[in-house]
Write a structure and sequence with these properties.
Length: 297
Amino acid sequence: MKSIVAFLVTGILFLSACSDDDNTTQPNTFIEIPDSEFENILIEQGIDSDGIINQKILRTDAEQVIRLDLNKDASFGEVSDLTGIEGFINITYLSASQQNIETVDLSSNTQLDTLYLFANSLDNIDLSKNTALLEVDVQSNELTSISGLSNAVKLKKLNVSWNNMEELSINNPELIVLYASHNFLTRCDLSGAVNLKNILIISNQLTFINLKDNTLLETLLISDNKLVDINLENNVQLSHFYSSSNLLNNLDVSANLQLIDLRVDRNPDLKCIKILPDQTIPTTHLSDYQALNSNCN
């Protein structure tokens, strides 16, 4: 009798151990994909190898993907939940634009160099783990901030236009292109972006911007703000300067000998734009009351 009891106990323990093994193996084998539209796209692209919408994908399937494009297609609905993206640890490219994504965790996607998440519903995004990023486009969201952006030390191009930002500080020394139009910016610190060449920052609330460290700047489009003054003395490579619809009361472009396009109309208190006596600017947009002159006293 004792031997039978011992046999039964051993059997129960063995089954329990097997059950525990299954429970620990399951999370390592599969990645949860709760959004059916997300999984539907993965199936359509041949990434989810079982071909069934069952809220999961083999981890090995996800780890084989280098480029993941989830852009909205007429045959699919909107993706609203990117849970499961953490399993795609080898992707260098992620595009999930024109969806309905409110939050995203990219902390496991450390190989990302290109990120397109424009036209979603994000109000914050953390890029502190994405140090390989070269290009980020998160325009047309509801962003008030971006966390960990300065960790993207290789970043070349950033688009944060059409968001809800009131402050922006850029400490990305390799950044060349910045688009930050149509926000609510009252403060913009670009001192940590010494290689900036192109800035689009129209339609904000800026009263001042310091560009003395941005000596490589070629294009500055800053119309429709509230600028009272701007110093362009250090920006000797500047070729295009648009500052229409501001509140400038003086402007000196005599140091900007590469300037070929100047647009400063609709600055009610700006009557004279200072240039050198022999300086020519091929294209200018001025209001009737404005003039270029070497003497603006």
